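Morning. Coffee machine broken again, so started the prediction first thing and wrote up yesterday's gels while waiting. Chain of 246 residues, entered below exactly as on the submission form.
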Amino acid sequence: MDTFTQFANQSQGRDRIFRATQYACAFVKYLLRNKSARKELLKKLQTLESNMSSGRKLFRLGNTVSSVQAARRTMQLSDPVLRLCLTVANLNRALYFICDNVLWARTVGLVRDLDKERWSFNASRLYFLSLVMSLTRDAYVIAQIMVQKARDRQYQQKVHQHLNEQQDVACVIIPELDAFLFLLYESLKTHPQVVLDTLKNVCDLFIPMDRLGIYQTNAGVVGFCGLVSSLLGILSLLKPGLRIKP
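Came back before lunch.
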């Protein structure tokens, strides 16, 4: 209970709860879209989803500064690939939050004569670029872990034993593929934080891709992916050991 209280007291924690609720409403709405007897429930879900979205925009008003500060920190990283990926990701996230703040000001009437569709499209594009760079970092980290694992003598003995024991068709025809998948599994088994971050970013990626028309799905897929990534984000906040670093 103390852990949840500390989590709920964080603005990021409240945002994740609101986000999970928002996408859960979107997902349930899609599942009930053809249920004529559920019209009243669908209206309530639509209202709740809208309120959660508005609340999240309010929580994110200070996130631009946080993202710029994060970019300044990642510029000091010694690894050039991590430095590039994380700095570009944080800068794109900062620009995304600026667009998001402007859209919030337009919603509450503080700004008028604003092309809402254009700003929304630009926000989605910046969000997409941020996620692409984050996934590039994840792929780089996974590759590093696999290289280190492949050099380990105990692993080399283990993989030879595995290939000798496996006699199915896939192992006989494509032994390199089986060895690669075994290496990937053994590498990530001891790095759950990398798996968690990669899954979260992959799920998040479907949201801007749908809005930008890169890979259009439907509201159900977007809602489900948003819900899963929100739950993974909540898990990483509740258990700091599952948060990828840097």
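The mean pLDDT is 88. Going to sketch it on the whiteboard this afternoon.
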